[in-house]
Amino acid sequence: MKSTFNRNYFIAFILLLVIEVLIAAFLNDGFIRRTMGDFLVVILLYCFFKSFLKTNSITVAIVTLIIAFTIEFLQLTDFLKSLGLKHNILVLNRNSRESRQGFFLIPRQNFSA
Question: What is the CA radius of gyration of the chain?
Answer without folding.
Answer: 17
